[in-house]
Amino acid sequence: GYGLIRISSTLNPHPPNLMFPIIILALWGILMTSSICLRQTDLKALIAYSSVSHMGLVAAAIIVQTPWGLTGAMTLMVAHGLTSSALFALANTNYERTHTRTLLLVRGLQLAFPLMSTWWLLTNLTNMAMPPTINLLGELFIISTLFNWSTPTIIITGMGTLITATYSLYMFLMTQRGSISTQFQLLPPTHTREHLNLTLHLLPLGLLTMKPALVSGLFT
């Protein structure tokens, strides 16, 4: 994202014939990677594709080269950086105990790790940009920027947001709800360092939600 901002600023103002296809590809990438997330069976692959989908929004907003677009891109980059890292940390805690990343095999972990399930819920709500998270602010800036650039983009960004909410709920339900497998009845407990790690991810997100100017540069 930083590289896109630096490179795109050297091309300002953008030639229309260069700007249009890049934004279309970025928007198309949002739908494709979000759809791939819906059929993933590997937990880490699902989280990785989720990051690619969010970066499609960031790339499109940067190429438009408006103050709102750059503000939304910067906000979403920081917010999703913390969110995605927290999701990978959660996936790793599951893998260290079950030794598998397959969603169909690892179910019902809420019964074994109720506190870790709370971290899963908070992180997934942040990933789907639930209000009043900083992720929502970034996505609103980007969607408004793209809508101002071209009205039909609201269809693609709206579908992308809907699919993001769908696969985030799918990820939470597949890992936490349901009946736990008999082979996972005796699992080692979670450690304080793991909860501290997740606290250090979600606490900055909460602080940024209360004061978005720290990352967005607005509302000062």
What oligomeric state do these chains adopt? single chain
- Largest β sheet strand count, sense and barrel closure: none
User: Number of helix segments?
Assistant: 10
Element-by-element helix/strand order: HHHHHHHHHH
Shape descriptor: elongated
**In angstroms, what is the radius of gyration?**
18 Å
Low-confidence stretches: none
Helix content: over 70%
**Span from first to last CA?**
24 Å
Task: Provide the domain count.
Answer: 1
Q: Count of DSSP E strands?
A: 0
- Average of the residue pLDDT scores: 88
Catalytic activity: a ubiquinone + NADH + 5 H(+)(in) = a ubiquinol + NAD(+) + 4 H(+)(out)
Protein name: NADH-ubiquinone oxidoreductase chain 4
Main location: mitochondrion
InterPro entries: NADH_UbQ_OxRdtase, ND/Mrp_TM
Overview of this structure, please?
By secondary structure, this protein is mainly alpha-helical. It has helices spanning 2-10, 16-38, 43-64, 67-98, 109-112, 114-127, 134-149, 153-176, 192-210, 213-216. The longest helix is centred in the middle third of the chain and has 32 residues, at 67-98. The protein has one domain (1-214). The two termini are 24 Å apart.
Q: How would you summarize the topology of this molecule?
A:
Elements: H1 2-10, H2 16-38, H3 43-64, H4 67-98, H5 109-112, H6 114-127, H7 134-149, H8 153-176, H9 192-210, H10 213-216
